Amino acid sequence: MSLWVDKHRPRDLMKLDFHTDQAVRLKSLVQQSDFPHLLVYGPSGAGKKTRIMCLLRELYGSGVERLRQETMTFTTPSNKKVEIMTVSSNYHIEVNPTDVGIHDRVVIMDLVKTVAQTHQIDSSGQREFKVVILNEVDDLTKDAQHALRRTMEKYVATCRLILIANSISRVIPAIRSRCLTIRVPAPTETEIASVLKLVCKKEGLSIPPELAMRLAKAADRNLRRALLMCEACKVQQYPFTVDQKIPEPDWQLFIRETAALILSEQTPKKLGEVRQKLYELIIHGVPPDMIFGGLLKELVRNCDMSMKCQVASHAATYEHRMRLGNKAIFHIEAFVAKFMAIYKKFVEESMGDAF
Amino acid sequence: MGDYPDPDEEYELMYADELEMLKEDEDLAETNIIIKKPLPAKRSLDFSSPIAKKPVPSTDLNHIQSTNTITTSIATESTDISLTPNLVPLEEFTPVSSKRTADELFGDIGDIDFNEIELPSKRQKTEEENDMDLIEKILEGRRLKQSLLEPSSRMLGNRSGYKAKDNLSLNIPRWAFIPLTNKDGDRVYVKLESEESWETSLDTGAEKMSLRASYSSTWAEARKILEDKQQKLISEEAASQPLPDMDADINNNMLLVDKYRPTSYLDLLSEEPVNRALLHWLHLWDKIVFKKEVKTKEPQQRTTFSKKAGQFQLTNKWKGKKEEEPEMDEDGRPHHKVALLCGPPGVGKTTLAHLLARIAGYRPVELNASDERSTEAFRNALQSATLMRSVIDAEKRPNCLILDEIDGAPLPTVELLVRWCTATATEGKKKAKQQPLKRPVIAICNDLYATSLRPLRPVALIVQVGGVSISRLSSRLALVCQREGLTVSGHVTAALAARVQGDVRAAIQVLSFIKARASRQLSMEDVENTAIGTKDCNKSIMQALQTIFTTNDKEPEAVLKTIQAAGEYDKLVDGIFENYLTARVDGRLVIAVETLAWLQLYDVISSWTQRHQNYSLYGALPLCLARCHAVLASRTPQRMKFPWQAQENYRKKVELESIVSSVLRGSSPSVCSSRAALQLDVLPLLPYLLAPQLRTANVQLCSESERKALRTCAGAMCDYGLQYVQQRTPDGLYAFVLEPPVYRVAFYGTEEKVRPPPALRQAIAREQQLEIIRRSEEMANRVPARSSTSGTQPTKSTSEKDKPSTSKEKDVPLPNHLQRLQPKVVKRNTPQVHKDFFGRIVPLSQVQRNDPVADVISSSSVFYHYQEGFNNAVRRNVRVRDLL
Fold this sequence. Notes:
The structure holds two protein chains of two kinds.
Chain A: H1 4-7, H2 20-31, E1 38-41, H3 48-60, E2 68-75, E3 81-88, E4 92-95, H4 104-117, E5 130-134, H5 142-154, E6 159-165, H6 173-178, E7 180-183, H7 189-203, H8 209-218, H9 223-236, H10 250-264, H11 268-283, H12 288-301, H13 305-324, H14 328-354
Parallel strand pairs in A: 1-6, 1-7, 4-5, 5-6
Antiparallel strand pairs in A: 2-3, 3-4
Helix pairs in contact in A: 2-3, 4-5, 7-8, 8-9, 10-11, 10-12, 11-14, 12-13, 13-14
Chain B: H1 7-31, H2 39-46, H3 50-53, H4 61-67, H5 93-124, H6 126-149, H7 154-160, H8 163-166, E1 168-169, E2 177-181, E3 187-191, H9 195-205, H10 215-240, H11 248-251, H12 256-259, H13 272-284, H14 286-290, H15 299-312, E4 338-342, H16 349-359, E5 363-367, H17 375-387, E6 399-403, H18 411-426, H19 428-431, E7 441-445, E8 460-464, H20 470-484, E9 487-488, H21 490-500, H22 504-516, E10 521-522, H23 524-529, H24 541-549, H25 558-566, H26 569-579, H27 590-612, H28 620-632, H29 645-666, H30 675-689, H31 704-719, E11 723-728, E12 734-739, H32 742-746, H33 758-790, H34 793-797, H35 803-811, H36 816-819, H37 822-834, H38 842-850, H39 852-859, H40 880-883
Parallel strand pairs in B: 4-7, 4-8, 5-6, 6-7, 9-10
Antiparallel strand pairs in B: 1-3, 2-3, 11-12
């Protein structure tokens, strides 16, 4: 008995709930018992990992589901030991190289080499290659990505790479061209709603379609979040009602509060308060680009049409600078200050017109 | 030079400027008096050694000053050339002096160059060269003639006219020059005159100074007269009464710093409260050292002291406690065993410590950075200084240990010192293993907040010695000068005192340096020109912040210098970021936007620098900060906050991240998702899932759905490696706490929003333990199951030995209710096997040993758990029928 997200995860390519035509294609891809390097990308909660695990199961059988967790140690050129957690089965190994920060190059080079250089002893009835799954490839440093290029070609006989990314814009073109890119788009709201209904049916519950739709909307096209929220709903109040309260991640509420704070008053003092809130968000590990996105969404809702474009373009500029820089708080606060200035000017002008 | 392809072109190139000059010269020669100052004279001075210059009489001092001004007085002569004002303000002579040296250099090189160039070319093109020679000769002749004809106008011409010929050029000349533009837009280059030539010209023409002389030279003249007078006065005085100087022969070998070291309490330059505080503390030791009663309760002195002490002890933590705490502990020793003197270098901390120790009747024993300061050496020094007494010293004075420059000592040494002091306070009486500290210890440091001093700070009496005030220092300097026979005016000493920023040692060293140059008089420029007086401008971050946020009318450039001196731009940026909101009234947030734009630029540049390890733009970083000054500076004084937020938040972030990674590590591999998903999706919603709605009743009484919810909850906790751990709260109760504390990651402040009530927590904890057992059982079941599927041979061959495994193999297809019957079969079989050995119910224990808890749970619906302990309740027999 575990969470619905984990319990009702499809294990077979044919049992996937959406993007079924893609699933068919994937199945036919591994029918020839071989496949090229893959680069799977798509937003969080779209089912990338689920598809990959289904694919591996198709390839190797149920043995891939027998997972174990290991901690591997690598030594950097500067003699620093870095530890990284890997999840592996007999047939594959999965690792998240960004966990070690700037030392990801070492991890990639060593890990792929050790995996690739060990051939299968008994190749009868087995595939000749192992699979290495690399998570969050778009957050890899440039060094690590370049280290990947040559390795990918060199060890193609014994090892296949499956790269997972949220967006391929930060994956270098050299890697993109070496992989078969598979896009897993986020499920639509109706798809999410249907999945929710299906899961509830499996659990022996009945969910009103309106609630399913509301959940799907609140989850922001993220199936994982939708399922978790649905289960949280169930825990809080079982016989579902259409207008029951949907528990949301606290950081979403917090961003909304912050936006409300920004709109309530535009003074340096308020800016100071907003800064504390922003710090809280950053502390809690909300990525700064999500803070930008969330704030912009909330702020634009309260803007006049003429301001909307202006605000959005400023947000883009400031976010770009944030990517160039290191201290996210400066850039977010700069955006907030800029918005406050624009908004205040606008309000004052419209007040002036009124009188 | 001969490399030029075309001789004509070369000629043009080479002599273009001369030709033009000649042309111009012809025109000017008609109207103006042109006197070329004889070159040889200039040369002779050029190469005179500095020693030769020395015997220049002191009256010439002001000449040096006046020569600093560049004579650009051509304006007076050529009408069409617009000039920079020929009066260069006196204050500017530092930059000018550097120009002057350049001028000296380049003026000579230009001449030499010229000659060298001419020599080789002569061989090739004699005709042109002959022409040139002719022209030169004619010019020289004309010059001589004119100088003979009109000797009276020589001075004026010298200052104005003589340069026009070879010191003006329309092309870029080879010698040092100043470019000028006349009103027609033509550019003229004027040669810079070297110091020597200017000096000689002054010498020759001093008596003929007229109204056309520049202001600066007149000013110099005036000063010269004044100083002459003063000099005369002094020499008369010196002649009349020879200085009551101490025997100069002996003292000449001494440094002035040592010579004028204070020898009595009244000589001390440091602040009175500081002296008093230290002396008072030293007197507190009298009871233990000299066996004499200390009058601590003398009312008047106490009040004045505390009042004054308040001034400098404001920053001290224990200041508030001071009134309550006795100054003496029960042993009759002062409360603080160590005095810690801190302050900038050169203010006289060491002197103060030595002098006061001597005044209080001690023999100062110094231990400083030049001595070895390993813990061993330090312990020896401490022991010898505090427990022993010098036999050589005639007066038999007790020791007072002075630990100089303690901020450079290694941390273990300081810790030893602290132990030495505190251990005597606590253990001294009981164990007597270590003698209690019975002698005063004075530690001296520059940086109070050095990391190695951290253990010492709370136990020490901290006395901050500030810089000496300018007025006191200048009066002292005047005294020293008088004793040394140096003549000096009040404003000079004041300037020197201001320049050294309270550093007495530096000031006196400047004096001795000037004295060594054998000039009897100290003028303003000596002070200004001396480089030794200036300290390293090492500014703290807070100083730099203060500078950024306050308007500075006098020196707008000083901000940049201060920022660069402070270094640590990252801290500074944080400081600006934390303080800018309150800096100025900013209703429309224009200032905020502007400031943040600069901070953003800073951030982008600095991360680019770090990313590419390319420091070419590093110089731009302080500029970004300096720009913030332009935006933020105001006149209202404000308190700067030290930038702690960034660090504090980083610390918190790391803390929460470690929680997330511990969850990630602990969660089972099947649910292991990426970190971002865990942090953003799973963990924020997990608390809702872990708080099932249950009635507060025994779990056994729960409905089926409730039990299911509980099991789901427990399963989820197992999946993500969470656990309820019993922890003792500060008020003595035990509470179940979720470990790792995911609530802190999930929620913002309002942690308690969905935390389940304690009873439920306990239920969940229990259920989770069952779940863990169930899972391990499942695993145990799975392993034999796999072995049965993979290899069927063992099951076939071993019929009797592997009975448990075969029984389990059978179990797999069987429904649950039949499973319970199975052990009985085993039981029936096993006694038969083991009867030969024991004849007892061995197999039961064997079964239990294999899987003790799991089997009990799986085999019966009732189980109990024995909690160790006892109660004092009265025991009595109760029959069932009594209850009925």
